Hints:
38% of the residues lie in helices and 15% in strands. The protein folds into two domains: 9-197 and 367-398, 3-Layer(aba) Sandwich (Rossmann fold), CATH 3.40.50; 200-362, Glycogen Phosphorylase B (Rossmann fold), CATH 3.40.50. With 405 residues, it is an alpha/beta fold.
Amino acid sequence: MNYGLAGESIVCFGGEDWWYHHPHSKNHILKRLAKQNRVLFVNSLTLGLPSVSNPDFFLKIRRKFKSHLRWLKRAPEGLVVMTPFIFPLFSSPIIRRLNLFLLILQLRLAMFLCRMRNPILWVCIPSAADVAEHLDAKLMVYQVSDKYDANEDSALSRQVIRDLDERLKRKADVVLYSGRKLFEESNLSKGCFLEQAVDFDHFATPAPRAAEDIASIPRPVLCYFGAIDYVIDTPLIEEVARRRPDWNWVFIGLRSNLVQIQLPNVHFLGPKPYSDLPSYVRQADVFVLPWRQDNVFVSYGSAIKIREYLATGKPVVIAPLYEYLNTPGVRIYRRVDDFIDHVEDALHHDSPADRQLRQKQVRDCTWDVRALQVGALFRSLLMGSTVEQAISASQLTAATETVVS
């Protein structure tokens, strides 16, 4: 498929690690653009390590070390992934200058090896602000995916994060907001809404059989996949699990040491390859998003997994995430009793019409569509169009327009 952009070099500073995180929006789009362009994905530079007292401190060090062992490696999707060696400390001016030197050295070497020059620079994390100004980019795009200064997972001061974020917004030719709440609160004339999408067929097509480790778990199964960390509402899960011992919770993904639940009907199956998720989807009766409601960072989340849940057609019960408050077919809870009532209703009264309604919400919102839009946006900007003209040509939503849920 032609995504409208060819023969370009794209360097992306991701906000996650390509090797072990559930794919984010830029992962899905870049693997499509990589079919006709050279793409270098730089694994997260982090926003600084959590404090040593954080239960996940050594877990994160170990994961990052494994990525460092790969340094520069071609991914199966056709792009090249790099994990640069830096010191994860951004509050010290001396360390930041040293990191800048190390990053420029490694990136120029990687770009030489990948035969890249004058790239399109796609920045998705504030900590890339320093190096972004030194790569001779022909176009700079800043994607804002989270409320970065509300991130509890970083020991870096909020003011430093805000300063880096503002620098990138000033420097960028266009700013993409991948969260509805983030976009609606923005005031940039060069901003636009890059709505999340889904691999519809991947999740809508039933797998021939369930994976062995989930097939052995008695139904009904309440299923969640993705990061299992401080966003998870552990007290809610524990209370529901005790009150409904016949319901089995299944969590698929990387689990933080912060989440410690020892109950017989709560199962942690670990991370699974993206390609294998349909064999787990098959066994789920209800998909859930038990996220904390008292967390500012969480409230700005756009959770691609909700669209993946919807694509299956199965019932979806979630915390009141702003992104999906007005999405038909989604059951939203605010208290434990609400959660139980919604799951009960889903298990006993969900209909084929409900299934079709949910799938209808995301059937035409695929990553192929988003990749076409991004390709058109980049191409228009490279041809000299104004930001307003480029956004219009890409059929994305401009900052001056009204976003309708």
